[in-house]
Design goal:
254 residues, alpha/beta, ten-stranded mixed β-sheet, 7 helices
Amino acid sequence: MLPPAAGKESDYAKAQYWQERYNQDAGRFEWFLNYENLRPIVNKWRRDIAVLDVGCGTSTLLAEMRSDGFRGRLVGLDVSSAAIDAARKQAPKDIEFVTGDGRNAPFPDSSFDVIIDKGTIDALLCAKNDASTHLASDAARLVKLGGRYLICSHHQPDLEELHSDPWLSIILEAVLSNHHDRYTAWHLDIHLLAQNQDEAHPTVYLFTKKRSRPPRKHSSSYSSGHDDNEEGRTSSPTHAMSMSMSVEVHEYSS
C-alpha cells in the first residue's frame, strides 16, 4: 500500500489507514530504528522490566529483546488488528499482543517500566489535532515512577533553543498533564546519530520519570544541558509545581 498522497498526510493518524495497510502487507517491518540501533540504550536497563511497545505494528523489537535476555512482561499494542495478528504469529508465545488505541491504552496506571514509541507520535502529529497529546499523556500515566518513556521521532531538536521547541513543548505539556503527583519530575536524554552521517536520521528522546523535591511555588525550570550557562524558564498555573527537566545529549550509531 502506498503512503498517503501529498496533502493527505493526516491519513497516517487514522486507524482505518493502518488496518488497510496491514491487511495488504503484514510482513515484518521496522519503523525508524531497529533493535541494534537501540541496543546501547536498552542494554543499560534491568532484564526483568515490563515493556510496552505502543504502535508496534509488525516490529520484531520485543522478540529481539526477549532473545537478548529480557525476561519481564513484554507487550505490543497497535490500533490495527491485522498488525497485531501478524505480530503475534511471528513472535514468541510469551509476548503479549493487544489491539487497542495508545491514546487510551487498556492497562492500569503505572503498569510498565518502559514505554517505547517508534514513530507513532509522529504519525498522530500528522492529524494536526490533539491526538499526539493524548498519546503522550497516556504513556506518562502508564509509566512507573523510575520508569522511562522512549520516543523515536524524525523531529530534529534545536539544541540551542530547546526551551522554545514547539514539538518538544507539545510532548512536555502532554506528559505533565497526567500527573497525579505534582512532585513528579522528568529527566530527558536526547540521543542523536553520529554527526558524520549525510542523511537525516531519527532522534531518540528518552524521558525518565522521577521524584523531585517540591520546587518553589509557581516556578518551573527547563535546562538544556547543552550549555551549562543557558537556562530557559517557563511557568504554568496548572503544572508549575510538577515540571523539572534537564537534557543530556548523546550519540548512537547506525
